[in-house]
Amino acid sequence: GAFVEKFTLSSESQEASHSQLPLRGLTFAVKDIFDIEGYITGFGNPDWVKTHSVATSTAPAVVSLIEAGATCIGKTVMDEMAYSINGENAHYGTPTNPRAADRVPGGSSSGSAVAVGALLADFSLGTDTGGSVRVPASYCGIFGFRPSHGTVSSSGVIPMAPSFDTVGWFARDPIILRQVGHVLLQLKDDDHELTAKFSRIIVAKDCLSLLDTRHQQLTQVLISSIEELYGNRKTEHINLGEYIEPRVPSLKHFIGNIRMDGKEDDNIPPSLAALSNSMRLLQRYEFKKHHSEWINSVQPHLGTGIAERVRYSLETTDENIGTCLSLKSELNSALTDLLGDFGILAMPTVPGPPPKLQMEPVLLERYRAKAFGLLSVAGMSGFCQAHIPLGMDGDDLPVGVSLIAKSGSDGFLLSFVETIYQVVKKK
Q1: Annotated active-site positions, please?
Q2: HSE toward the beta carbon, residue 107, CA cutoff 13 A
Q3: Residue 28 φ then ψ, to 5°
């Protein structure tokens, strides 16, 4: 199942002022990385549970949702130590993908996505460091939102890699996605009027070329919906990799390494592969900083794949970490120049449909490499990103696309997704 444990948490004051509560009547599930008072936060690993005590307070993000009238119905299964985008957990099992039972649900917020996709909760909380909300949203055919880095409190959430950690959420419906965002982001105004300021949609055509032609056509539905609402003069196509390369000087170091290793993939623009390498390096370094002491003293039993990743991270040194941090701020500036206040970047969330369960490690690693090339754009820039489901393909597998807006434009992006989806639905 999707849940580690079920319980009910709701606000005692719900009845008193129920008419003003924006999330009244909605249920939600929470990834087992958030502290809930009176429960041990499991972090996807039984040895973690054995060596930690119960939480003495509840994470502020969870509290704010309960105070807004929503009822928490339980904690969900996650990948061990949040170190995977697959959704397979060697100890607690793999939550069943409600759209494709023979495929992975995506991780590390696997149970949270499955709970929403399988109609067990109206929305759910996850975390997204390298892609852990966007990927399972895509695989399970639901909406997922990664907010701008640092905009939602991650207090009471076990850190994975703080330079990237964000509190994200899932919903089946863009209205609920936006309502939850308003509570978590503490937005005061209605952002619907901001959608009128929308300036342009920039389609990353080199990223789209990672998808097969059939999926590229399905993605076109979103572009045509935007053109229907705003006119086609607002659409531009660019090669994102070519745009980034000269504007993010710190990439040179990582691009040079890729070319030296002979690991250039024809499909992935070199600058996006370099971006991904930089993100993964900084992630490993920060993971080590937070968790090496526990890992070395407890020697936890870790599932395959995770064990290798954790071992690799423990070998990471601080070499090139400064370059990674420079790269983050350079990318933020370059993409802010590209999008401005009300521009939106459209690109695939992942390079294709969800991989099969127990896929061969070599094939899976190739898929992951492409996926991180795409996921690192918002990850390294700190921008906000929404995954929008676009139905099923000819093989009955979920298809979707992502929209990215500049850091701090979360309210605008959530409203834009809601507005545009009214048109997408009719196509």
Answers
A1: 31, 108, 132
A2: 29
A3: -145, 155
